[in-house]
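Rotation project, supervised by the postdoc (A.L.). Task for the rotation student: set up a whole-complex structure prediction and record inputs and outputs verbatim in this book. Inputs entered:
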Amino acid sequence: MNPALPPDPTLRESATFDRATIADIQRAAETGIYDIRGGGAKRRVPHFDDLLFLGASMSRYPLEGYRERCDTDVVLGDRNATYPLHLSTPVTIAGMSFGALSGRAKEALGRGASEVNTSTTTGDGGMTAEERGQSKHLVYQYLPSRYGMNPDDLRQADAIEVVLGQGAKPGGGGMLLGQKITERVAGMRTLPMGVDQRSACRHPDWTGPDDLEIKIRELREITDWEKPIYVKIGASRTYYDVKLAAKAGADVIVLDGMQGGTAATQDVFIEHVGIPTLAALPQAVQALQEEGLHRQVQLVVSGGIRNGADLAKCMALGADAVAIGTAALIALGDNSPSLDAEYRELGSAAGFYDDWQAGRDPAGITTQDDELAQRLDPVLGGRRLANFIRVMTMEAQIIARACGKAHLHHLEPEDLVALTIEAAAMARVPLAGTSWIPGQGL
Amino acid sequence: MAALSTPLETVDEFREVEPAAVDLSVCEVRELNAALHARDVVEKAARWRVSSPDGRHNIAVGLDAGIEVEIDGHVGYYCAGMNKTASVTVHGNAGVGVAENMMSGTVRVRGNASQSAGATAHGGLLVVEGSAAARCGISMKGVDIVVGGDVGHMSAFMGQAGRLVICGDAGDALGDSLYEARIYLRGSVKSLGADCVEKEMRGEHLAELGELLAAAGMDADPAAFRRYGSARTLYNFSVDHASSY
Ligand SMILES: Cc1cc2nc3c(=O)[nH]c(=O)nc-3n(C[C@H](O)[C@H](O)[C@H](O)COP(=O)(O)O)c2cc1C
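Outputs recorded:
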């Protein structure tokens, strides 16, 4: 039986009090606690699927697939840093903490990223030797908690990412539940074992853009102006936040939309705070263009990026690169159908598992349990991730060539149309078959 | 980078006699920090004297050598940030985040310190001879902080490890959401933060406090202090504590 259908056709499910809503109320009444989970927003929001490329025909001519060049490389952080990052593909790996992920998962991400010459990123909880060792380009996150933050790791990083927020929870801090705080995780964070760890939501020694400017200069001074400094924001008041971040001196802005994954956040936060990636990206580009900084301050976009089409659409709307979190974990083996029976034992199923906060991941990725973690082979995982990034990159090239572009960065909004009025308004491209961009007159 | 100003170029002549002198009215903070970061900084000069800081930010940040730096005047934000090994003295007041995330070494502020002094610092000793403003020792991770005067509100917020000694009074919400950091207070406290409680002062506490006061050069009797720490009731979420968060 299809579980989406009621057992009896005369039964009518309420659109307001649907079964998921009823179950939520019942669960809250029973437990007295809100739901915490991993992953990103599950509700449908306007997204890149609502955009289409026009492709070339009479008025534009395409490039020959496989024969004519379509470059994919990107330089990040060349505004101030002596050593900007030069990556072969604009698909980067988003910051995911050791603590949320096992050491072997972090190593696999580093291996996969390095194989295709892209960057990976630390997370809340500091830098591990595994990931530094396996990552050719490692971005070191500078978070409010400053867990494990130290000047030696700062100097061995290839870039520094000041984290203001995440798309899954703009305005929220971090959370790592006690069951994942093992001796190693606790040691890196200077906390007792088994304690629920709530990372602060604000930085302890600066507030606001004027302070951030001084903070960025401090990080530059400490690292002798060698490394690019990124600023990561969750998508909310994106137009203003991007302007302020750029003026504060960011070399790269990482913009994370509401669909962005998280290791552990309240469901109500994930689903109800922040705006979709699609709505945020054009605001960020506008802000940079108005400051004369578009392409000088690079824009990395994340939150629900799943394939080469999403990548190409981000490029066309003005991003310089993307970052992937959830998709990278799936590439490593998360939610694999081969683990379905084990997911079911945990009350979930392959394709639905999101209890990344719980530390019991059968795929051995979002866990600190040694036995579970052993299940992930970092070499194999790295290869799978590299495969996936290659496919994403090639898919984007296929689209770019069809649009006559010799570099992914040559894609432009003019190549796009929207399928829905909402997407047209957010992406600021015309509704397909019309010249109408809602909000911009006829 | 512009050429170093004359005092830096003549450093060799003064070795072991006079400290290397850097005048920030004629050279940039960048030049000073680059000189202090040089691999051979100790051979060049083990002692440095910085004049005319005039509230500039990020002075002497990221040091990682056994050198002594004296700064004659007031400094802006993040002076001695992320310090390792070095000993830095500010003969004046310090702006926001002095010695933030310090790992080791000693930082001494002869005057007062602004907000977030010693924020997230992992080790070393921070001495503020005057008073420190709000959030002194916020998120401290192992540093020892000794304040001669008072501290402002939210001091030692989420303090994870290390010791905060306050010879004067403390403002509101002292030690809010404290983990394992220990607080010693001689004066009064306006209010304690969530999960922060007064604890018994036992012999070992008197002894460690005596050592801290001595290391900081503070003339105070350990017996006059009270100790505060975490009640540890918020370590794992419980719905019955929801109103404390
Ligand atoms: C398991 C996991 C852990 C994460 N940890 C962090 C973190 O420590 N710091 C951070 O800035 N973002 C963190 N994020 C968010 C990612 O950096 C990124 O913004 C997000 O995953 C992008 O969206 P996507 O998952 O749809 O690709 C985490 C995400 C996941 C899935």
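Student's summary: The radius of gyration of chain B is 19 Å.
Supervisor addendum: The CA atoms of residues 195 and 231 of chain B lie 5 Å apart.
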